[in-house]
Amino acid sequence: MTLILHSYWRSSAAYRVRIALNLKGVSYQQVTHDLRQGAQSAADYRAVNPQGLVPALEADDVVLTQSPAILEWLEERYADPPLLPQRLADRAVVRAMGAIVACDIHPLNNLRVLKQLRDQFQADGAAEKVWMTGWITSGFEALEGMIHRYGRGFSFGDHPTLADCCLLPQVYNANRFGIDMAPYPGIRAAVAALNSLPAVADAHPDNQPDADR
To answer: What is the largest CA-CA distance in the chain?
Structure first.
């Protein structure tokens, strides 16, 4: 099976998928789309993903979209190493941690929303920063408490999970926009553990073929 990941180097949703692919040791090809230039809206890409968003993952006769669904597919298709715990309740906790990022933080801070704030509400850079900081910090406060309860080096337990696949890209975004990470020692520790893994380091935006040089 040849996997093709449609991506953009700084897309946090695509970053999640790269982390999971690399942790599982699954090879893939990348096709990149510059979101700043609107390449995701081109007709040829809309034929692949009608929503016109990245990531999309081509796998033989199917195109998978939406990063949480892609992560779940990878977990089921490539079971080793697992990115979900064995216990049913623990799996639900990991999914909830990932959802704090993928459902509550990221959708309100992605490029489409920021563009809407600028175009429709005349938000300047300072207003954008206030907007982003509010949503990121509220989510990080919840995650910090959960990591304190469930983490043993990583977000949950002592090895990476799908929660980490979501957390690390969101911290990358937070750092880009100057969010103070000092109040979140648990998150910072999990991020340090993740970044020490070569597979995760290879997924970093700066290491992608379309990254700004």
So the answer is: 48
